[in-house]
Amino acid sequence: MHEYSLACEIMNNVLSIAQENNAKEINSITVGVGRLAHVNPDQLMFCIESLCEDNVATGAEIILNEIYPEMQCQCGYLGEGKQFCTVGDEIIDDIRAFLEVPCPECEKMMHASGGRDLIIESIDIEQ
């Protein structure tokens, strides 16, 4: 479970930033998780919440934001990957949503760009 090591790295950075800013408490931590980052958001959330115990982040709200790739085609079409996560009434909630996706303009297969990020977007602290 590599989510634990990722959560440890995130929390080390969060606690370091909190210490540099003389934080008495961390209210919330917002993390952007790319849909193509090969990270299970539920496991990451559990690990971060576990690491928030017994420090200035105790009780902090953990917010995970999905980062979608941009879909690009040779014909010049650009579209946000989120729009390709549904086929008819079916919601595709995994990497399949971004593989072998035909361009709505020319029907050629598109390429996913981005969406591999794992980034601390914000930390709300009390000083």
UniProtKB/TrEMBL annotation:
Name of the protein this chain belongs to: Hydrogenase maturation factor HypA
Xref: PANTHER family: HYDROGENASE MATURATION FACTOR HYPA
Binding, Zn(2+): C73, C75, C103, C106
MF GO annotations: nickel cation binding; zinc ion binding
Keywords associated with the record: Metal-binding, Nickel, Zinc
Family the entry assigns: Belongs to the HypA/HybF family.
GO biological process, one term: protein maturation
Residues bound to Ni(2+): H2
Function: Involved in the maturation of [NiFe] hydrogenases. Required for nickel insertion into the metal center of the hydrogenase.
Matching InterPro entries: HypA/HybF
Pfam families hit by this protein: HypA (PF01155)
